[in-house]
TrEMBL record:
This is Circularly permuted type 2 ATP-grasp protein. It comes from Rhodopseudomonas telluris. Residues 96-475 form the Circularly permuted ATP-grasp type domain. InterPro entries: ATP-dep_Glu-Cys_Ligase-2, CP_ATPgrasp_2, DUF403. The lineage of its organism: Bacteria, Pseudomonadati, Pseudomonadota, Alphaproteobacteria, Hyphomicrobiales. Residues 523-817 form the DUF403 domain. Pfam families: Alpha-E (PF04168), CP_ATPgrasp_2 (PF14403).
Length: 833
C-alpha cells in the first residue's frame, strides 16, 4: 500500500491532466486514429503536444480558446454553405491536427508525384491524345465528362502548364498509410482558410506553437506567388484572382488570398478582352492583366465558347488563351482530372508515364463504363459505395455524395441497379472505407472525430512545392464518409512538427532592390463603385439616425403649435425617405423604432447599414478587420429591438458613434489613393444631398424658430450657431450655416469643395485636356454656392440645388463605373499598359 502511494505521488500534475482528458478516448473499431497508434498508445508527436498543453491552467486554456474564437469573430471569418443565403461563422477546432515531419515527407512525395502524373495526363488529353488512342484511357471516360472542354483541345497553355495549383483530399487508410480520397484540379479551395486557421491558432497559443517547431506555411505561398509572377511575359505583371463574387461559398477565402498575396480581386465584369489581351476595367481606364488565378469553374469562364448563360466569365477569354495573351491558373478544362471515372486507371498510367508505381494509393475504384467492372459491381452491389463518375450528384437521384446500396429501400436499390446496368458510364463503385479520426476538444475532454485533410501543391521552376500542413475538415458524426463545411463540420489547423528548428520565412521580400511604391496598385471600377456606395449608404444611415434622434427627444409637447409642426415634418421626412410606413401623427416612439429597426423598409437605419454591409462584403480585401467589424457589429446591434423610447435614443446615439468611428478609421488608416477618394466622394455627395433636403424642409419661407432649431440639431451646428449669434435661430443665418458656409464641415458648400478636390485628383479618361462631366458639374456647383446669398435660398433654389447634386452623383457613377454596353466605350480604351 505504501509503495503504491509513493508511486502515485510521483505522477506529474500535467500527466494527471492528460489522463483526465483522454480517459474516455478510444479508437473506433477497425478505424485508424491520429492520436492513438496501432497498439493503442499515443503517438510521440501527440504526447509531446499534450505534455506542453497541460502546462496551461484551466483558466488559461479557456482564455486562449476565447481569444481564438474572438479573432475569428472580429476578423469576420465566414463561409457560405451550398444553398445558404446568409454567411455562417467559421468553426475552428482548438486542437490542431499533428503530423510528424518524417511522415509528412512521405505524404509530400506522394502528392508531388501525383501532381506530376496528372499534369502529364492533361498534356496528353488536350494535346496528342496518345493515351486514348492506345486504350490506356477509354475514350468514353473522357467524352462523358462535362469538364472536358473541346474548345481548349489543341491549345497550348501559356507558360506551358495546365496545373499551377493542385490539391488532394487524403485520409489515413485501414492499413495505416495515407490514401488519396479525391483530386482537386479545377480551382482548389481551402488555401486561404488554411492560412486563416494558422493565424488564429498560432496567435492564441504562441508559446506552444513555437515550442512544437511547426513548419511555416509562408514559404509555400511565396513560392506560389513567385511562380505565377514568373509565368508572365513581363517583369512586373498584374495578377488577378477571379472570383464568382460575394455570394460564392468561399468568398472570404478569395479576399484573404488576394490581400495576402497582393493580387487584384476581380469578377468577370471587371475584365474585358481587347485585341489579344485581357484587361481590367479600372477608374484609370483599361489596364492589361497578365495572370489570372481563377476560382470560377471552367465552363463559366467564357460565355462565347463555353456556357452561354454564364455571367461569371469573360467573353473572348478562350480566344486570348489561343493567342498566348494571358496565363490562367489552372488552365480551363483541368477539372476533367477530378472525374472519379479516371481513378481506376491512374496506377497503370503512373507506370506508363512515370515508370514508377503510385507512392500514395487511393480508394479502389471500378468505373462501370467497362463491361467487366460493371458486371462485378452488379454481382455484389451491396459491398460497394456508389458515386457519380462525374460531379457530385448521382445521375437520376437528387442525393449528393456517396450512396450505400445496402442501406437503400428495395425499390430505390433496384432503380439504382437498373441505372448502372443501362448507363454504367455515369457511375463508379468504390470499396467502403470509413475516415480515420483525430482528437477534438469536447467539454473539457478529448473525443475522436472523422476528418479529411486537403494538401496543396504549387508548381514552381524547381518542381512542386507542398504546403506543410493543409486544410483539415472535421465531421461531428462518427459515421461520416465525406466531410463538407456545409454539414456542421469544423476546420482545424494542421501542424507539421519537426524535431529541430524551423525556418521563420515570411512573405516579406528577401531582396533589397525592390522598386519602392507609394500607391497600392490599380482600382477596378467595380471596387470603386462599391466604395462609393458604401460611403453613400453609411451617410444615409447617419441621416436617418439623426432624424430618429431629433424625433425621439423626450418630453415633447404633444399639443398643437410650432413644436408639434416640427415633429410632423420629421415624421413626413422619414416616411418620404422610406424609413417607415407608419402614418404621420402616429405615436412618435413607434415611428422612431420603425425607422431604426424595420426589416421591410428600405430607408430604415437597419436596412441602410445592411446595404452598406453588402457593399463592404465585396471589398473584404480592401477593408481592415477593424472597419469590417464596425459595420458588422452595427448591423447586429440594430437588428435587436429597443424596449422603449429611451432605448431607441440610446441605440441611435451608439450607432452614430460607431459610424463616426468608421469614418475615423477610413480617414486615419486608408491610403490617400483612388479607393479612399471614392469612399469620401460617396459620403460627401450624400451628405450634401441630405443637408439640402433638410434645409428645404426646415428652413423654408414659413419656418418657425423650432424648425430652425431642429435643422441646427440635424447638422450638429447648435454650438457653432450660438457662438456666432447671440439671438434665437433666424432664417438667413441658419441657411448660410447649413448651405453656404465653406468653413462648416457639415455645410453643403464644404461638401462641394471637398468633392471638387477629390474629382480633380482622379484619373482623366478623355484625351485632349477637356474638362470631364463630373468635374464640370462640381465646378459649376461650387461657383453657384460661392456667389449665392442666404436670403435668396428659397425652396425653389434649394430644390434645384438638390437636383444638381443628384446629377453630380449620377455623373460620377456613369463616368467611372460603367456597366453593360457602355463598359467598353472609346475613352475607356485609352490606357492599355
Amino acid at each position: 500500500m505504501a509503495q503504491g502511494g509513493s508511486q502515485a505521488k510521483r505522477v506529474r500534475p500535467r500527466d494527471r491532466k492528460v489522463a483526465q482528458w483522454t480517459r474516455d478516448y478510444t479508437r473506433l473499431p477497425g478505424i485508424p486514429d491520429e492520436f492513438l497508434g496501432e497498439g493503442g498508445a499515443p503517438r510521440p508527436v501527440w504526447s509531446r503536444y499534450f505534455d506542453a498543453f497541460a502546462a496551461l491552467s484551466p483558466d488559461e486554456v479557456d482564455r486562449r480558446f476565447g481569444a481564438a474564437d474572438r479573432h475569428l469573430r472580429d476578423a469576420g471569418v465566414t463561409y457560405r454553405a451550398p444553398g445558404d443565403a446568409a454567411e455562417r461563422a467559421w468553426s475552428l477546432s482548438n486542437v490542431p491536427l499533428l503530423i510528424d515531419d518524417s511522415e509528412w515527407q512521405q505524404i509530400a512525395a506522394g502528392i508531388a508525384q501525383r501532381a506530376t502524373l496528372l499534369e502529364k495526363v492533361l498534356q496528353d488529353l488536350y494535346g496528342e491524345g496518345r493515351l486514348i488512342a492506345s486504350g490506356a484511357i477509354p475514350a468514353a471516360a473522357i467524352a462523358g465528362s462535362p469538364e472536358y472542354l473541346r474548345a481548349v483541345a489543341g491549345v497550348k497553355p501559356p507558360a506551358g502548364r495546365y496545373l499551377r495549383i493542385y490539391a488532394a483530399d487524403i485520409g489515413r487508410g485501414p492499413d495505416g498509410r495515407w490514401w488519396v480520397l479525391g483530386d482537386r484540379t479545377q480551382a482548389p479551395s481551402g488555401m486561404g482558410y488554411a492560412l486563416e486557421n494558422r493565424l488564429v491558432l498560432s496567435r492564441a497559443f504562441t508559446d506552444l506553437y513555437k515550442s512544437m517547431n511547426v513548419e511555416r506555411v509562408a514559404p509555400f505561398f511565396e513560392a506560389f506567388r513567385d511562380s505565377l509572377r514568373a509565368s508572365a511575359d513581363r517583369d512586373e505583371p498584374r495578377i488577378g484572382l477571379l472570383t464568382p463574387g460575394p455570394f460564392s461559398e468561399t468568398y472570404f477565402e478569395h479576399a484573404t488570398l488576394a490581400r495576402y498575396l497582393g493580387f487584384l480581386l476581380v469578377e468577370g465584369d471587371d475584365l474585358a478582352v481587347s485585341g489579344d489581351r485581357v484587361h481590367i476595367r479600372t477608374v484609370a481606364g483599361l489596364k492589361r492583366l497578365d495572370v489570372l488565378l481563377r476560382r470560377v469553374d471552367s465552363n463559366s469562364l467564357d460565355p462565347l465558347e463555353l456556357d452561354a448563360s454564364s455571367q461569371l466569365g469573360v467573353p473572348g477569354l478562350i480566344d486570348v488563351l489561343r493567342k498566348n495573351g494571358v496565363v490562367v491558373a489552372n488552365m480551363p478544362g483541368a477539372g476533367v482530372i477530378e472525374a472519379r471515372a479516371l481513378l481506376g486507371f491512374l496506377p497503370s498510367l503512373s507506370r506508363r508515364l512515370l515508370d514508377e508505381d503510385l507512392r500514395m494509393p487511393h480508394i479502389a475504384t471500378w468505373w462501370c463504363g467497362q463491361t467487366s467492372a460493371r458486371e462485378e459491381v452488379l454481382s455484389r452491389l451491396d459491398d460497394f459505395v456508389i458515386e457519380a463518375a462525374y460531379g457530385a450528384t448521382l445521375p437520376g437521384f437528387s442525393h449528393k455524395g456517396p450512396v450505400l446500396p445496402a442501406e437503400l429501400p428495395p425499390v430505390v436499390r433496384d432503380r439504382l441497379r437498373d441505372a448502372i446496368a443501362t448507363r454504367g458510364m455515369d457511375y463508379v463503385a468504390q470499396e467502403q472505407v470509413r475516415l480515420s479520426t483525430t482528437p477534438v476538444w469536447d467539454n473539457g475532454k478529448l473525443a475522436p472525430r472523422p476528418f479529411v485533410l486537403r494538401v496543396f501543391a504549387a508548381a514552381t521552376e524547381d518542381g512542386w512545392s507542398i504546403m506543410p500542413g493543409g486544410f483539415c475538415r472535421i465531421a461531428e458524426r462518427l459515421d461520416s464518409r465525406a466531410v463538407s463545411m456545409g454539414e456542421g463540420a469544423r476546420a482545424a489547423d494542421v501542424w507539421v512538427v519537426s524535431e529541430g528548428a524551423v525556418s521563420t520565412a515570411s512573405l516579406l521580400p528577401a531582396v533589397e532592390n525592390v522598386r519602392i511604391r507609394r500607391i497600392t496598385g490599380l482600382l477596378p471600377s467595380r471596387a470603386a463603385d462599391n466604395l462609393f456606395w458604401l460611403g453613400r449608404y453609411l451617410e444615409r444611415a447617419e441621416a436617418t439616425l439623426r432624424l430618429v434622434r431629433a424625433l425621439s427627444v423626450p418630453q415633447r409637447d404633444p399639443g398643437k403649435g410650432p413644436l408639434h409642426q416640427a415633429i410632423e415634418r420629421i415624421q413626413r421626412l422619414l416616411i418620404s425617405w422610406g424609413a417607415t410606413s407608419l402614418a404621420a401623427r402616429a405615436q412618435t416612439s413607434k415611428i422612431a423604432a420603425d425607422a431604426l429597426h424595420s426589416e421591410e423598409e428600405f430607408g430604415s437605419a437597419l436596412s441602410l447599414v445592411r446595404a452598406a454591409q453588402r457593399n463592404a462584403s465585396s471589398l473584404r480585401e480592401r477593408l481592415s478587420p477593424d472597419a469590417w467589424q464596425v459595420i458588422s457589429q452595427t448591423a447586429d446591434r440594430l437588428a435587436l429591438p429597443a424596449e422603449d423610447e429611451e432605448a431607441v435614443i440610446a441605440l441611435a446615439e451608439i450607432t452614430l458613434q460607431e459610424l463616426a468611428s468608421f469614418s475615423g478609421l477610413s480617414q486615419e488608416n486608408m491610403n490617400r489613393a483612388a479607393g479612399w477618394r471614392f469612399l469620401r466622394l460617396g459620403r460627401r455627395v450624400e451628405r450634401a444631398i441630405n443637408t439640402t433636403r433638410w434645409t428645404r424642409q426646415f428652413a423654408d419661407e414659413d419656418a418657425s424658430a423650432e424648425d430652425l432649431d431642429v435643422l441646427l440639431t440635424l447638422i450638429d451646428c447648435q454650438i457653432t450657431y450660438r457662438s456666432r449669434y447671440l439671438v434665437a435661430p433666424l432664417l438667413a443665418p441658419v441657411r448660410d450655416l447649413a448651405v453656404l458656409d465653406p468653413y462648416n464641415p457639415r455645410s453643403v458648400a464644404f461638401q462641394v469643395e471637398e468633392l471638387n478636390d477629390h474629382i480633380a485628383s482622379l484619373p482623366t479618361l478623355k484625351e485632349g485636356g477637356l474638362i470631364e462631366r463630373p468635374q464640370r458639374l462640381a465646378v459649376a456647383l461650387q461657383a453657384t454656392l460661392t456667389t449665392a446669398e442666404a436670403s435668396d435660398l428659397d425652396s425653389r433654389k434649394l430644390f434645384a440645388l438638390e437636383q444638381d447634386l443628384l446629377s453630380l452623383a449620377d455623373a460620377i457613377g456613369s463616368h467611372y463605373f460603367p456597366h453593360g454596353a457602355s463598359a467598353t466605350r472609346p475613352e475607356k480604351l485609352t490606357g492599355l499598359a
